[in-house]
């Protein structure tokens, strides 16, 4: 591609992006295509000769876009958000254009130094103490895997990497059943084995681990010859926003000499508002904390902020030092690839810099507080609507509800979710609470307005009457 053509198509892509964002309200939120419909329109084999950009771009618009679920749609209320504020998209255009591989300080000093600064800005923003250092991971799953590997290494006196799976069968990790499945996967991938992930029963409305049961399980395991290594706590679990009593978990961990990782992938963004910090009271005692600015803060996917009270443990677990990666004589600098499983790294800090400077913390706080307020108001309206039941109360901007109907309540609510998503005005997903289907609602879109909560209410009530 020559310079002029690159310039033309780059501006065309940026213009397309702006038009796309403007058109979102008029599109169905979830892709309305059937399985295989998109694949069926893609050539069976790669072209032997190059094609015209006009044709490729046209196919993007006619084949690909209809098969996209619109995660930036203001009425995306499913899962958790993957918010990309327009300003972070602009930063990503620049990152894409520069296309640096930022594995070491010397492979792009600005990327490393900005990352250090941005993680410190975020640390201050969410109220973590100055002792924490941060790194951007590609996902919360990777941060959790890294934390589990540190737990394994510390428990095995830094011999697990060398000794491998054979050294691990008696390691134990503790969590509730409210944590994300990425925790289960970290346990398998680290070789610890799912039988050694001990589920602690939850108590109370917040569905947090029973700390007395946690201490008892650790004691019992020690007596039985297991090696308790760490605890994974959650603030804002994926299903219904469960929150462990972090202070209580940390107290048990300190008594038992265990490592604590806190997964606040979604809820962590809300900690920029002081009034929500009681949800993770005691977090300053944790060893490792992750939250995803790409979920609710507006930093384009992907961007996971991973904070560590002692990053040396992580580096000791993950760093690799082949000759070609040695930075000869440049001690005192950070090579973030030593803090994560992947070696190669994108320049992820730029979008945070743009985002935080453009909106300021007060702008982001206003967005989060609005979402919480609108979700609470919607829960109240549904509670007062005949046939509806609030199953779990709002935790920040997430609650779950159920509609009474039909002889099989689960089938009825699944049918309602399907009807809602086929309708296209809003997008919701279901979960299971105490064995029964419930419908989740979370407000978190950067471009959401109060009227979108109104549309959600009308759509849910209207379709509930129609579903049989
Ligand atoms: N933890 C929680 C609480 C989540 O909700 C999710 C995803 O939604 C994850 C972890 C996994 O996040 P990631 O996709 O960044 O690995």
Automatic annotation (TrEMBL):
UniProt keywords, alphabetically: Decarboxylase, Lyase, Pyridoxal phosphate
Gene3D superfamilies, alphabetized: Aspartate Aminotransferase, domain 1 (3.90.1150.10), dopa decarboxylase, N-terminal domain (1.20.1340.10), Type I PLP-dependent aspartate aminotransferase-like (Major domain) (3.40.640.10)
Cofactors that this protein relies on: pyridoxal 5'-phosphate
Superkingdom of the source species: Bacteria
InterPro entries referenced in this protein's UniProt entry, alphabetically: Aromatic_deC, PyrdxlP-dep_de-COase, PyrdxlP-dep_Trfase, PyrdxlP-dep_Trfase_major, PyrdxlP-dep_Trfase_small
Stretch forming the signal peptide: none
Pfam families: Pyridoxal_deC
Family the entry assigns: Belongs to the group II decarboxylase family.
Protein name, entry field: Pyridoxal-dependent decarboxylase
Protein species of origin: Sinorhizobium chiapasense
């Amino acid at each position: 591609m020559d310079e002029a053509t690159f310039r033309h198509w780059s501006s065309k892509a940026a213009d397309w992006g702006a038009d796309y964002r403007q058109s979102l309200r008029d599109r169905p939120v979830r892709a309305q295509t059937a399985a295989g419909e998109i694949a069926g329109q893609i050539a069976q084999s790669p072209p032997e000769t190059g094609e015209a950009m006009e044709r490729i771009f046209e196919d993007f618009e006619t084949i690909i876009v209809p098969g996209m679920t619109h995660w930036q749609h203001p009425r995306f209320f499913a899962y958790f958000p993957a918010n990309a504020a327009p300003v972070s998209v602009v930063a990503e255009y620049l990152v894409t254009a520069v296309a640096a591989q930022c594995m070491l300080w010397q492979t792009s000093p600005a990327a490393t130094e900005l990352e250090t600064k941005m993680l410190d800005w975020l640390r201050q923003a969410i109220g973590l103490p100055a002792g924490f250092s941060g790194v951007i991971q590609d996902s919360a799953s990777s941060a959790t895997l890294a934390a589990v590997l540190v737990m394994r290494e510390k428990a095995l006196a830094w011999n697990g990497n060398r000794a491998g799976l054979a050294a691990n069968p008696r390691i134990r990790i503790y969590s509730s059943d409210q944590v994300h499945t990425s925790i289960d996967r970290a346990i398998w991938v680290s070789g610890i084995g799912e039988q050694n992930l001990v589920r602690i029963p939850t108590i109370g409305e917040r569905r947090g681990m029973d700390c007395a049961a946690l201490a008892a399980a650790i004691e019992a395991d020690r007596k039985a010859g297991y090696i308790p290594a760490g605890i994974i706590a959650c603030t804002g679990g994926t299903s219904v926003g469960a929150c462990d009593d972090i202070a209580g978990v940390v107290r048990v961990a300190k008594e038992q000499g265990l490592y604590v990782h806190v997964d606040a992938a979604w809820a962590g963004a809300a900690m920029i508002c002081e009034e929500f910090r009681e949800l993770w009271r005691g977090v300053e005692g944790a060893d490792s904390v992750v939250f995803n600015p790409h979920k609710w803060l507006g930093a384009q996917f992907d961007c996971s902020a991973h904070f560590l009270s002692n990053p040396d443990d992580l580096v000791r677990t993950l760093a690799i030092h082949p000759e070609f990666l040695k930075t000869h004589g440049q001690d005192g600098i950070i090579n973030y690839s030593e803090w994560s499983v992947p070696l190669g790294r994108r320049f992820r800090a730029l979008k945070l810099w743009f985002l935080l400077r453009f909106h300021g913390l007060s702008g982001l706080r206003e967005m989060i507080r609005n979402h919480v307020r609108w979700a609470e108001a919607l829960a109240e309206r549904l509670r007062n609507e005949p046939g509806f039941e609030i199953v779990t109360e709002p935790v920040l901007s997430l609650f779950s509800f159920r509609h009474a109907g039909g002889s099989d309540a689960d089938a009825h609510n699944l049918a309602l979710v399907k009807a809602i998503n086929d309708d296209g005005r809003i997008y919701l997903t279901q979960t299971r609470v105490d064995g029964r289907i419930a419908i989740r609602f979370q407000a978190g879109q950067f471009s959401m307005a109060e009227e979108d909560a109104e549309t959600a209410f009308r759509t849910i009530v209207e379709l509930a009457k129609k579903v049989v």
